[in-house]
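Service request form, structural biology core

Requester: graduate student, group of Dr. S.
Request type: structure prediction, single chain
Budget code: on file
Notes: please return the result as structure tokens.

Sequence provided:
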Amino acid sequence: MLTMSAHLNEFRPRQFDLIAFDWDGTLFDSTAIITRCIQRAVVDVGGQEPTREAASYVIGMALMPALAHAAPDVPKDKYPALGERYRHHYLQHQNDISLFDGVLELLDDLKARQHWVTVATGKSRQGLNEAFQAVELRHRFDGSRTADETAGKPHPLMLHELMREFGVDPERTLMIGDTTHDLQMAVNAGCASVAVSYGAHEPKAFDALKPRHVAHSVRDLHDWLLQNA
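Core staff response, request fulfilled:
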């Protein structure tokens, strides 16, 4: 059954067939917890605690490149321990994380309009599958790619693989994310993008990457997509 917003827009021409969402900071309200887990992990292995800005900047990247970037003073031989400490802290808090309000309604409206709805994330496959189970979201997505099964952001491979899977051209693909890594991946893949300002990166950093829109809430994103996607 269509929601009212989907019903009002069901005859509007569709501009994008494939919509790829980032996960953390875009659909999942996890930015603050991930930032703190990165900071604690670095301190645990003897590094200098990164600032909040430095720790949040790497969200969206594959885990080990992200941790290495956030902890330049940690030697490479400590990277396994650094990853283990991050996972330790994150597992302690993963049940404290929830979807942003309005995400389920947004996804249902996009599915009602027959978009392919997918996830392109820096999380691991295990981490994404656990998140799917925790919030009962798996059936709302047609496909997904994670950083440990393809190239991490901003390399375009995960978008290229999703486009091949669903037979969609770059000009009919839209990437939505909260970081410059997401937007640069879209540029590298030849796709359009939309940014959200309520996640990890400050919106002033988005300008050079020319997203079609910067949404300041899930409601703002929802409305833009129904009008323009």
